[in-house]
Write a structure and sequence with these properties.
Pathway: Amine and polyamine biosynthesis; putrescine biosynthesis via L-ornithine pathway; putrescine from L-ornithine: step 1/1. InterPro entries: Ala_racemase/Decarboxylase_C, De-COase2_CS, De-COase2_N, De-COase2_pyr-phos_BS, Orn/DAP/Arg_de-COase, Orn_de-COase, PLP-binding_barrel. Keywords: Lyase, Pyridoxal phosphate. By secondary structure, the chain is an alpha/beta fold. The chain has 2 domains: about 5-25 and about 260-420, Lyase, Ornithine Decarboxylase, Chain A, domain 1 (Beta Barrel); about 50-255, TIM Barrel. It has 13 helices and 20 strands. It has helices at about 5-15, 25-40, 55-60, 70-80, 95-105, 115-125, 160-170, 190-205, 230-240, 255-260, 290-295, 385-395, 400-420; strands at about 5, 20-25, 40-45, 65-70, 85-90, 110-115, 135, 145, 175, 180-185, 210, 250-255, 265-275, 275-280, 300-305, 315-320, 330-335, 345, 370, 400. The strands form 3 sheets. Strands 1, 2, 13, 14, 15, 16, 17, 18, 19 and 20 form a 10-stranded mixed sheet that branches. Helix 2 (about 25-40) packs across helix 3 (about 55-60), helix 7 (about 160-170) crosses helix 8 and helix 8 (about 190-205) runs parallel beside helix 9. The longest helix has 21 residues, at about 400-420. The structure holds pyridoxal-5'-phosphate.
């Protein structure tokens, strides 16, 4: 991977042809250390958020040894790069071939299920193995989530107690899991889900060895500033104490977004400006899927090879490169009023569900990865550093667009309010 101090250094040193993912491995390490130090249990990385080799390798180097995998290629990826890793196959619907290969060829012993038919599949394909850890996925409310994941997976109240009981009979270790939904803005959502799980366990009347609180831990986006991560961990810790589980039960979490979101930004080049329409070389079929479909604002900067973009702004609509008309981001986005062909737009916080979502549609989808050393946006892990970097990011042609600055002010205000409340 080529290395640059900043994305602007890259833009100034050579033409930027395709989209470029700017990796910040130190942000990943900071997030991984934070979780390993502060979460009172196992931290499983949800591979689907970003399966890039450098991500898996950096997490492994940071000491992450547990991985939440959802398909055979993810199993094979982790097996090939992470000697001694523990994998949990957490997709509630697996092919028989995937179950068999994961168990017999890759030593995967942890499987999730949300119905009896899947339980039967797992038992049949592992030859009724005596060493299985079986995790029953429960359906819980996704009210606190920005991207709800309820409705597709999970055993509901009516079936769960019976399924927990039946699974107990075949499991060396039994767990329950849920997913509160992605980008969960309310720590209390974890407590509610854990209390719901506790009621279902009590109804089942069996012992449970593992409580897996899933993913959903948030990242910071403009106008979407979550409470500090420590509040999530505190809510989980106290709810765990109140659950009807053995006092020596294990606690797991499966963060995807929270570990990797901050660690990648994506550079996309402006190919044409036509009135207020900006055509870029990345879009909804590339790394910007979430920008189009989740419709929440990601932080942005503009880089120009020669000279600096104007301080004045205008409102633009953004379009991706494919011929599909849903490949568009109506925004409107506030960008320099002299935005022109060749300018490079940098979208921050795209480590999760960014490059991972890129398709080959229309011949696009190649993404180069480089490493950079700056971090201009607010961080869940060390806000002080991030604020200094935001201040520095305004110089030298790289311009932090207004809502990134607004974000910083708002975060400070929030932190001040919080500190005042404590006093
Ligand atoms: C996607 C997923 C995760 C990760 O979710 P984030 O919101 O990115 O933290 C964790 N567990 C399961 C089962 C998932 O499907």
């Amino acid at each position: 991977m080529s290395q640059y101090d900043t994305p602007l250094d890259l833009v100034r040193s050579r033409p930027v042809e395709g989209p470029v993912a700017c990796a910040r491995p130190d942000r990943l390490t900071a997030a991984a250390s934070w979780f390993q130090t502060n979460f009172p249990g196992e931290v499983l990385y949800a591979v689907k958020a970003n399966p890039s080799h450098w991500v898996i390798d950096a997490l492994y180097a940071a000491g992450i040894r547990w991985f939440d995998v959802a398909s055979l290629p993810e199993v094979e990826l982790v097996a090939s790069r992470c000697p001694g890793a523990t994998m949990a196959f957490m997709h509630p619907v697996k092919s028989r071939h995937a179950i068999r290969t994961a168990y017999f060829d890759h030593g995967v012993k942890i499987f999730v299920l949300d119905c009896e038919a899947e339980l039967e599949k797992i038992l049949a394909e592992t030859g009724h193995a005596p060493d299985l850890t079986l995790v029953v996925r429960l359906a819980v409310s996704n009210d606190g989530a920005t991207l709800p994941l309820a409705g597709k997976f999970g055993a509901g109240e009516d079936e769960a107690p019976d399924l927990i009981r039946k699974t107990r009979a075949h499991a060396a270790e039994l767990g329950v899991s849920f997913h509160v939904g992605s980008q969960c803005m309310a720590p209390s959502a974890y407590r509610s889900a854990m209390m719901e799980a506790s009621r279902l366990i009590a109804k089942a009347g069996v012992t449970v060895d593992i409580v897996d609180v899933g993913g959903g831990f948030p990242a910071i986006y403009p106008g979407m500033i979550p409470p500090p991560m420590s509040e999530y961990v505190a809510a989980i810790r106290s709810a765990f104490e109140d659950m009807m589980v053995l006092s020596n039960a294990d606690l797991w979490c499966e963060p995807g977004r929270a570990l990797i979101a901050e660690a990648v930004s994506v550079l996309t080049r402006v190919e044409l400006v036509k009135g207020d329409a900006v055509y870029m070389n990345d879009g909804s079929y590339g790394c910007l899927f979430d920008i189009v479909h989740a419709k929440w604002p990601f932080p942005m900067r503009v880089h120009r090879r020669h000279g600096a973009p104007s301080e004045e702004t205008a409102l633009y609509k953004l379009y991706g490169p494919t011929c599909d008309s849903i490949d568009s981001m109506p925004g409107p986005y506030s960008l320099p009023s002299d935005l022109m062909e060749g300018d490079v737009l940098e979208f921050g916080m795209l480590g999760a569900y960014g490059t991972a979502m890129a398709t080959r549609f229309n011949g696009f989808g190649d993404v180069e990865t480089v490493t950079v050393a700056d971090f201009p946006w607010a961080s869940m892990y060390d806000p002080a550093d991030a604020s200094e970097a935001v201040a520095a990011g305004g110089e030298d042609g790289g311009r932090v667009v207004p809502f990134a600055r607004g974000l910083r002010r708002r975060r400070h205000r929030l932190m001040k309010n919080r500190m005042m409340k404590r006093r």
